[in-house]
Specification:
The complex is a heterodimer of chains A (131) and B (174).
Chain A (H helix, E strand, L loop, with lengths): L1 H15 L15 E3 L4 E5 H6 L6 E8 L5 E8 L5 E6 L2 H8 L6 E6 L5 E7 L10
Antiparallel strand pairs in A: 1-2, 2-6, 3-4, 4-5, 6-7
Chain B lengths: L2 H51 L12 H24 L4 H6 L8 H20 L1 E2 L1 H13 L4 H14 L4 E2 L6
Parallel strand pairs in B: 1-2
Helix pairs in contact in B: 1-2, 4-5, 4-6, 5-6
The chains are: A alpha+beta (131), B mainly alpha (174).
């Protein structure tokens, strides 16, 4: 009798246990490229977690002991279109260095392929990279 | 009217006319003088502005009368206008050319780095794609090139990718 009661109690606990999950705002920014207006954007997590294995977006800063610094950003969308820009602007380099693992990045360039803007956003609504 | 009255009347008219003419002449002269003074003041302001622009301070000149001073001002203005025209015609000036820094010729190491970057880019264009490994090598190479050349090479890569001449490899197959 006791055994049966314990089993029923266990079963009811499993059945009625409703997990409490709260979630805030979430935004997805897949890699998007506008070759006409020369800009690209996307969030690291969104690109990484996308169903394709093509899209990605990133920026790399480079420095040497002579004091020369530069930044280059790349973006490839799901269709495989790739774009890039380069800059030695200290402000853009600083912006690139502010990126974190789950940042959103927007960059724009001129006809010479020189970056004109580099926007970095960090926020709770940006998905982290899952794997 | 007798002859005496007529004579007095004639003399009176003559005196009145003469007085009026004299008054008018004085008024006219004073007006002309005032106009000349105004013109002179305008010319002086204009000349000072021009002299300031040319960083030339004209020596103080004391002249006996306005006519002489005006003639002197005209000469100064003509000289300044001629100088200004000469400066405008020869733009950029030789002085500006001399001030412009001449880039140092590249060192052998800088030249070698630039050639390495060029070779990387040419090989990639021949293949049609740009890998992460290419990118790392290219970044190192262009940073070894002289300033100015680095930007040119970086721009060449950007344009090759943005025009579709080079495809970015993204599948981890590089």
């Amino acid at each position: 009798m006791m055994k049966r009661t314990a089993k029923l109690l266990g079963l009811s606990m499993v059945l009625f246990a409703v997990p409490l999950a709260y979630a805030g705002s979430r935004s997805t920014f897949l890699v998007t490229i506008d070759t006409v207006n020369r800009n690209a954007y996307g969030a690291f997590g969104s690109a990484r977690n996308s169903s394709d294995n093509v899209q990605r977006i990133y920026c790399r800063t480079f420095a040497d002991t002579s004091g020369a610094e530069s930044v280059r950003c790349f973006a490839t969308n799901a269709a495989g279109v790739g774009v890039t820009c380069f800059s030695t602007s200290p402000t853009l380099i600083r912006s690139a260095q502010s990126m974190v693992s789950d940042s959103y990045v927007y960059f724009a360039w001129d006809t010479s392929g020189v970056c004109t803007n580099l926007d970095v956003l960090k926020g709770s609504h940006l998905a982290p990279k899952e794997q | 009217m007798n002859a005496r009255t007529f004579l007095l009347l004639t003399v009176g008219i003559a005196l009145g006319t003469l007085g009026g003419v004299t008054l008018s002449q004085n008024l006219f002269e004073s007006r002309v003088e005032r106009m000349l003074d105004e013109k002179l003041a305008e010319q002086l302001v204009h000349m000072r502005a021009l002299a300031a622009r040319q960083a030339v301070v004209p020596p103080p000149v004391v002249l006996p009368n306005h006519g002489e001073e005006l003639r002197h001002i005209r000469e100064q203005l003509a000289a300044l206008a001629a100088r200004e025209a000469a400066v405008g015609a020869s733009s950029p000036s030789p002085a500006a050319d001399e001030a412009r820094p001449v880039p140092n010729p590249p060192t052998p190491a800088q030249e070698e780095a630039a050639q390495q970057a060029e070779a990387l880019l040419e090989a990639a264009i021949a293949r049609g794609h740009w890998t992460d490994a290419d990118d790392i090598q290219f970044a190192r190479a262009i940073h070894g090139a002289r300033p100015g050349r680095m930007e040119e090479l970086a721009s060449s890569l950007s344009q090759a990718i943005n025009s579709g001449q080079l495809r970015l490899m993204t599948r981890g197959d590089d």
